[in-house]
TrEMBL record:
Lineage: Eukaryota, Metazoa, Porifera, Demospongiae, Heteroscleromorpha
Protein name (Swiss-Prot/TrEMBL): Sushi, nidogen and EGF-like domain-containing protein 1
One annotated GO biological process: cell-matrix adhesion
InterPro entries: Epithelial_Barrier/Signaling, NIDO_dom
Source organism of the structure: Geodia barretti (Barrett's horny sponge)
Residue ranges of every copy of the NIDO domain listed in the record: 59-151
Amino acid sequence: MLTLLLLLSSGVRAISLSDFYPFGTEANDSVLPQGDDGSSSPISLSQRFTLFGKLYSVIHVNINGNISPGVPFTSSHLDEVSFPTISPYRLDVDTRGVDGGHIWYRQTTESILLDQALSHVQIVYPSVFSLDYLFIATWDHVGYFEMHTEQVHTNVVLYSRS
Ligand SMILES: [Ca+2]
C-alpha cells in the first residue's frame, strides 16, 4: 500500500539537483503536455494508496504543482479545491513559455531507487526496513503564470513499504 510522500526541492538551497531522483527522458518518464492549468490523463497505480481514509488506484499529476487522486485538478484558483490533493509545489505553474520547463512522472520498482528512498525515509522513520514501489513526479525548471520562466525544481516521491 502506498503510504507516504517524500519531497525534494532545489528551492531549498540545501538540496542540489544531484540529490533528486532521476527524471526526464533518460529515466523513461512520461511527460505532461505544455500548458497552464492542465492535468495528466488518469494514471493507474500498480500500488493503491489511502488518503484521508479513502483508497485510490488512480491519480492525476497536475501542472499547478499537485497530485490529485481520482480526479484531475485543472483550476488556477488553488483555494477552490474541494477534494484531497497532495500539493508539494502548489503554485500557478505555466509551462507554455520558451524554456517553460517540464513535468515528469513514472512508477518504478528499480532497486537502486528503492534503496535511495529507503535511506531518506529512515531519517524520519528508522523502523521502516524496506520499500517496494515508488511514484516519482518532478516539476523540472517550471515557470509560472503567465509564461514566466523562473527555474524551479521540485522532485516528489510517493512510496510504499512492504
Ligand atoms: Ca497554471
